[in-house]
Design a protein that fits this description.
38% helix, alpha+beta, 19% strand, 2 strands, two-stranded antiparallel ribbon, 3 helices
Length: 98
Amino acid sequence: MTNTAMTNTEANTAVVRRLWDEAFNQGALEVLAELVSDEFVNFASVTNGPQFLTTLINDQRSAFPDMRFTPLQVIAADDWVLTKTRWTGTFTDRKSVV
């Protein structure tokens, strides 16, 4: 019998991969409400939860319209997922704050 259920680690890794691919690379910001908890806190910002990432991604995509994040390495254990990524893009908007 084959177990086809995803482990927590596999499920968390899939969420992080979707975050990079769909939200950052494709600009599909509607997935943030599904993937990011309202309790997410960025201590360097007054905005938290999915709204923080919405603002961040919009600002980045404005300055780098062709930006692309490529995960080079993914390390996952239990509830933790770490990615080493390559970020490429052409800076085109000097008015944007990144």
